[in-house]
Amino acid sequence: SLQEVQGCSGAIACTATWYDEQGNPVESDVRFNTAEDWSVSPDADSFDIQSAAAHEFGHVRQFDHVTSGDNTLVMWPYISRGDTSLRKLGRGDSRGNNTTY
Length: 101
Fold this sequence. Notes:
The strands form 2 sheets. The protein has a two-stranded antiparallel ribbon. The chain has a two-stranded parallel ribbon with strand order 3-4. The relative contact order is 0.17. The chain is of the alpha+beta class. It has helices spanning 49-60, 91-95, and strands spanning 13-19, 25-32, 38-39, 47-48.
């Protein structure tokens, strides 16, 4: 259940990551909310699972949310039903996370 993962309550998908003593990521779990409708094609009533997966696997790669500027980036923290435009991480997603690298 996403309700049991800290910071995931109310999310359509969520990533939890565990770190070793030096702060290096060692394991990540990605979960999708089964109460939501998912699709692999444009569907106004469903969330695009490929877009949500690209976003969550961005978190697995240690990308944070991008919250300023461009809401067309994969790492933007929100997605609309039927939106299939966020399936690939792009240059803007990495620029938003350059302080990490």
